[in-house]
Amino acid sequence: MTYEYDDQNVFAKILRNEIPNSTILSTEFSLAFKDVAPQVPEHILVIPRGPYVCFDHFVMEASDNEIIDFNKVVAKICVSLGLSPGNGGNGYRLISNSGRFGVQEVPHYHLHILGGQPLGRMLQRPTS
Ligand code: AMP
User: Fold this and answer.
1) Separation of 33 CA from ligand 1 center, angstroms?
2) Is 79 in the pocket of ligand 1 (CB under 6 A)?
């Protein structure tokens, strides 16, 4: 697995406190904050603090503690925002874009939590 991490990406700068963010939850290994350009009423990004480029990089190379912490943060936010169907919420969608075909803009692994309105079908047929 060969990934080169660009430490000048915008999420690396957020983690170094070089640019501000609207934090939702911060832990030893993970940070969750509001997306600066929300696509739906609830649009949260969760990132690991470690230098991982995308999902497979993170899961293959991060420690179990980092992976567990990340997933717990995602779940806690789904519950605390009232999105969890198990708590009477209307549900949510998790998306992680990877690489060129996945149209990943920021090369630091992140998971989008989307909710707060009906989200439609999972994918629309790509136009290109
Ligand atoms: P992706 O295409 O999955 O890489 O999406 C990157 C996401 O990061 C987009 O939804 C952007 O709106 C979001 N984003 C970019 N810069 C910032 C920032 N400074 N603070 C919060 N979200 C950001």
Assistant:
1) 10
2) no
Q: Ligand 1: does its nearest atom lie under 6 Å from the Cβ of 100? A: no
Of the candidates 116, 119, 111, the one whose C-alpha atom is nearest the C-alpha of residue 45 is 111
**Number of the ligand 1 atom closest to the C-alpha atom of 110:** 3
For residue 30, the CA-to-ligand 1 centroid distance in Å is 16
pLDDT at 126 over 90: no
What topology is assigned to 10-115 in CATH? HIT family, subunit A (3.30.428)
Check if the beta carbon of residue 70 is closer than 8 Å to that of residue 46.
yes
For ligand 1, the distance from its centroid to the CA atom of residue 65, given in whole angstroms, is 25
For 29-46, write each residue's pLDDT tens digit. 999 999 999 999 999 999
What are the residue boundaries of the structural domains of the chain, listed by start? 10-115
Give me the pLDDT at residue 20, please: 98
What phi and psi values does residue 30 have, to the nearest 5 degrees?
A: -145, 160
Q: Which of 43, 108, 110, 112 is catalytic?
A: 110
